[in-house]
Give the backbone structure.
Amino acid sequence: MRLTKNLYFAFEVETENHGTVHVHTAPIARAVFESYYAELKAAFDACFDASDPLTFVMSGPRIAYAALKSAAVKMGTWEASKDRPNTPTTVKDGLVQEMIRLTTIAHASDGQGWQSLPMATAIARGILDDESHYEILGVLSFFSCSCRVGPRDVVQDMLTMMESAGKWQFGSWNSTAYVASLPILTPEESTTTKPSSVIA
């Protein structure tokens, strides 16, 4: 795995009603990073512990979204307020929505194999419950602030650790190619005995 501008990554998340879903996403563009670099830097600083990189890898994805939101709220850039209605695109409506736009969810669909949906559609249809939705945003925030803010060698080591732990997968494949690579879904075998068709 090598850190490049075309690096995609994928991971799995457990949902309450739809079992394991596969998440595929692309990194945010440099122009997007430049619009929100201060908030992403603050989130990275909240996650990163130079004395213990393992803690960074293990807890970072769980706290990154909360750290990003907290930093943006303090900066007054999380969402528009009544006293500042003409604020430039906020973190909530800009950066977060862009991360969601870049993300595809694949879930097992009865009799139709893996069904691939934009993350926003998966949220609207209830494929993602609140907990899985929040978990995905945490990983997306962590990936975004790490890849764009962190020192290249640190990020390279972090991604390698995540990949070797089996948590994330990295590659140059787009979402269509990734979903096509998933295991073929097979229907569960019935535990009931089929009646004999032999007539005595």
Observations:
- The chain has a mean pLDDT of 83.
